């Protein structure tokens, strides 16, 4: 069998081709990460003119700080809820659109639009909808006997940022789930239909197991999204309040480092957050991937 292979006349050419990407990665990812690790072991004076090596002091203070421990638990709840809600709705919409014939493209376009919205715009949009003075949602909730006030109630504020963050991510999950459902062999679905299996049974016995690689990929992406990329949403909706009820780990890094100018503690928090995500990713690949059927 004849195969086409690409050959390079110079050994340096492959490295030159990847050099721009490596340069960008080094400048915007590796170098800032290294600086954060370095700063986590130092303490600056109030004027930022001198630094003192303090070792693991910042890490010890963080682990003994009840506010930081609460932020870890709060972030865990937030990440689980955002991941579960966005993936469930993305799969539900994909399953519904996949069964359509004439209007599938129209619904796909409408469902993809939210992904084009910037996170901060998504946060402001949901802030307006749940605004206690002019928002529509508190008005309808009040008719149902539910009093909504995310400015004073920490639970309401957490629900608000979960809804806003999940809404922003549904479109991304929808696209991948729809592509996965469309790649399911029609012969399997037709054979199951001939055997008398209904649409629901065919989905859970054939389509869903074959979506396990897509589900595993989206699970990792959504966890990382909830841990890192939701900062603009929190900042635009609740600003970490009330009483730090919505202060996630990534937002606490901003509050302590940029607002509080405690760069050492903020850098230590960045390192811990990076380690948490790395451990979660390792656990997912080590244990969760075993259940994936390729």
Automatic annotation (TrEMBL):
<keyword id="KW-1133">Transmembrane helix</keyword>
<dbReference type="InterPro" id="IPR000515">
    <property type="entry name" value="MetI-like"/>
</dbReference>
<comment type="subunit">
    <text>The complex is composed of two ATP-binding proteins (UgpC), two transmembrane proteins (UgpA and UgpE) and a solute-binding protein (UgpB).</text>
</comment>
<comment type="function">
    <text>Part of the ABC transporter complex UgpBAEC involved in sn-glycerol-3-phosphate (G3P) import. Probably responsible for the translocation of the substrate across the membrane.</text>
</comment>
<feature type="transmembrane region" description="Helical">
    <location>
        <begin position="157"/>
        <end position="181"/>
    </location>
</feature>
<dbReference type="InterPro" id="IPR035906">
    <property type="entry name" value="MetI-like_sf"/>
</dbReference>
<dbReference type="InterPro" id="IPR050809">
    <property type="entry name" value="UgpAE/MalFG_permease"/>
</dbReference>
<feature type="transmembrane region" description="Helical">
    <location>
        <begin position="12"/>
        <end position="34"/>
    </location>
</feature>
<keyword id="KW-0812">Transmembrane</keyword>
<keyword id="KW-0813">Transport</keyword>
<dbReference type="Pfam" id="PF00528">
    <property type="entry name" value="BPD_transp_1"/>
</dbReference>
<keyword id="KW-1003">Cell membrane</keyword>
<feature type="transmembrane region" description="Helical">
    <location>
        <begin position="71"/>
        <end position="94"/>
    </location>
</feature>
<keyword id="KW-0997">Cell inner membrane</keyword>
<keyword id="KW-0472">Membrane</keyword>
<feature type="transmembrane region" description="Helical">
    <location>
        <begin position="268"/>
        <end position="288"/>
    </location>
</feature>
<comment type="similarity">
    <text>Belongs to the binding-protein-dependent transport system permease family.</text>
</comment>
<protein>
    <recommendedName>
        <fullName>sn-glycerol-3-phosphate transport system permease protein UgpA</fullName>
    </recommendedName>
</protein>
<feature type="transmembrane region" description="Helical">
    <location>
        <begin position="202"/>
        <end position="221"/>
    </location>
</feature>
<feature type="domain" description="ABC transmembrane type-1">
    <location>
        <begin position="72"/>
        <end position="284"/>
    </location>
</feature>
<feature type="transmembrane region" description="Helical">
    <location>
        <begin position="106"/>
        <end position="129"/>
    </location>
</feature>
